[in-house]
Amino acid sequence: MNESSGYISVNDKPIYATAFLPDALPAKNAVLLVEPFAEEKRPAFRMLVRLARKLAEMDCATLRFDLSGTGDSAGEHEEATWNAWLDDANKAAETVKELAQAPSVTIVGARAGALLAAQVAIAQKASKLVLVEPIFNGEDLLRDLERRQAIKAMTDNSAANVDAKNQWDKGEAVDFGGYLFNPTLASQLPTIKLQDQIDTLNADKCNVKAIRVSASKKLPPAWKAIEENTVCVQDKPFWGQLDYYESDFVIEAIINALN
């Protein structure tokens, strides 16, 4: 397995990415990982790196990357837009296909990354899409960010509660745990609905799988439309821990969904 990091150019901006390649090419498959956003990315990081390494050992070329304005990629989070992130992810998908010397790409999207992954799967005519504890629409993402900030304001005197809508209406970015969401991104997110993308992917014959991570085996109402293609994993929420959390059960479920 060969692991290397560097930059890919998207709209003249360097986007940081790490490729995990099998020893021999062409690879059996090309896999793009679209990670959780904001505070949820850190606790999931090590688990997704382990996943990428395991996939490379299984002859699957895999790429993980930082969206523009995040991690080691160019730009500021305050400047990020959904369309720019789509460009980043589409270029990353094309890059891993080229590295793998594969005709198609499989995409894995975790949490809010699932919203982006589904749109990229449509654009790239992906052979398979795996959704890991997905957030089902952009409105839910914004509500979750506001909920987290409200909890911080109650428990941490240094964390300010925010009236997000009022700040966006005034043209100001809103700080959610150190991640600034500008009014443009905030207005774009409510238009993103995962079910719409799944309907398109089903029509395109893309194989869509989902993984629910919960102590309960009961699926929430939003999951009913993909219930038949969902596997439940009983574990802690890997995205909601204070530190890195690595779940062998989730890694195994993702690998099984990819096979």
Q: What would you note in describing this structure?
A:
- α3 (113-123) runs parallel beside α7 (194-203).
- The chain has helices spanning 41-57, 82-100, 113-123, 138-155, 164-169, 183-188, 194-203, 248-258; strands at 2-10, 13-21, 29-34, 60-65, 106-110, 128-132, 174-176, 179-181, 207-213, 230-233.
- The chain is of the alpha/beta class.
- The protein has 2 domains: 2-137 and 192-258, Rossmann fold (3-Layer(aba) Sandwich); 138-191, no CATH class.
Strand order of the largest sheet: 1-2-4-3-5-6-9-10
Mean pLDDT: 95
Unreliable sequence segments: none
CATH superfamily of the largest domain: Alpha/Beta hydrolase fold, catalytic domain
Q: What is the N-to-C succession of helices and strands?
A: EEEHEHEHEHHEEHHEEH
At the first level of CATH, what is the class of the largest domain? Alpha Beta
Give the proportion of residues in helices: 25-40%
What distance separates the N and C termini? 19 Å
Number of strands: 10
| Annotated CATH architecture of the largest domain | 3-Layer(aba) Sandwich
Keywords, please?
single chain, 259 residues, alpha/beta, Rossmann fold, 2 domains, eight-stranded mixed sheet, two-stranded antiparallel sheet
